[in-house]
Amino acid sequence: MSSHPMSHSVSSMRWGFVVLETLLVLLTLAALADNLLDTDWGLSWSTFFVGMIGSLWALVIYQLVAAQLAERDKGS
Predict the structure, then answer these.
(1) 47: which of 8, 13, 36, 43 fits an S-S bond (Cβ 3.0–4.6 Å)?
(2) pLDDT digits 0-9 by tens, 41-53
């Protein structure tokens, strides 16, 4: 019975990372479109690079947290 809260926590974390990653990818694509298509959305190249770097860091952090949770489950 004690594994249920852990699985709910892991599921919530995964959805949180999916939402974060989706927002960062959309921000990156919007900034890229703004700069390449010369639209007037007010997004700069800095926004593009911040979105790209943030997206990559979110992927790295997700992998590290998932590996730590897998190690914790293996030890239990």
Answers:
(1) 43
(2) 999 999 999 999 9
CA distance 32 to 2: 46
pTM: 0.77
pLDDT of residue 39 exceeding 50: yes
Q: What is the 3-state secondary structure (H, E, C) of 12-73?
A: HHHHHHHHHHHHHHHHHHHHHHHHHCCCCCCCCHHHHHHHHHHHHHHHHHHHHHHHHHHHHH
Residue type, 7: S
> Tokens in use for 64?
């590290």
